[in-house]
Write a structure and sequence with these properties.
alpha+beta; 7-stranded mixed sheet
């Protein structure tokens, strides 16, 4: 019996309650307003008509990263390969539907990639926002975004020092991002 079969037939199910697991993804890009990030407007409750990060529940046979990539594509049409983990967010009351823990990721899209965005599945609308003009957001997504911005800043600093690769950006591209983030 494979591991997947063991997971799906639930032969090792216990009686204690378990939380649901979701993923959320912050998509950054360089734009007219320096650094921008992508939000969807929720089509359904909870938080109907609120701006939110693309994300949703992971399926039983997928990793959190695979779930994040799938949800991003299902809700926005954005298909990417590279994610960096932000962290896990598990405040007990973060989701009114029940106990839910999210694993958050971020990615950075180069201007030259010309990504087309579309409001799909449960997204009523989709829009790029400046990191300096953050709207009211659903769930704890503002907290996730704040942490993502901190990770972005630290990763850009490390990339500028040639310690890490940052989404295959050139030094001139990093310099612009560095300036936009107020690090110069």
């Amino acid at each position: 019996m494979t591991l997947i079969a063991k997971v799906t037939d639930m032969s090792y199910t216990y009686t204690f309650p378990r939380p649901a697991v979701t993923t959320d993804t912050v998509v950054f890009k360089s734009g007219p307003k320096c650094i921008e990030f992508l939000l969807i407007k929720r089509q359904k409750d909870p938080y109907k008509n609120f701006w939110a990060l693309p994300g949703g529940f992971i399926e039983i046979q997928e990793t959190p990263e695979d779930g994040a990539l799938r949800e991003l594509q299902e809700e926005t049409g954005v298909k990417i390969q590279n994610l960096k983990e932000i962290g896990a967010f598990g405040d007990i009351n973060r989701d009114p539907r029940g106990r839910t823990i999210t694993i958050a990721y971020y990615t950075f899209i180069k201007e030259s990639m010309n990504i087309e965005i579309k409001a799909l599945s449960d997204a009523a609308d989709i829009k790029w926002f400046s990191i300096n003009e953050i709207p009211e957001m659903a769930f704890d997504h503002k907290e996730i975004l704040d942490e993502a911005i901190l990770k972005l800043k630290s990763h850009v600093i490390l990339a500028k020092l040639n310690v890490i690769d940052f989404f295959n950006l050139r030094q001139d591209e990093l310099k612009q991002i560095y300036h936009c983030l107020g690090l110069s």
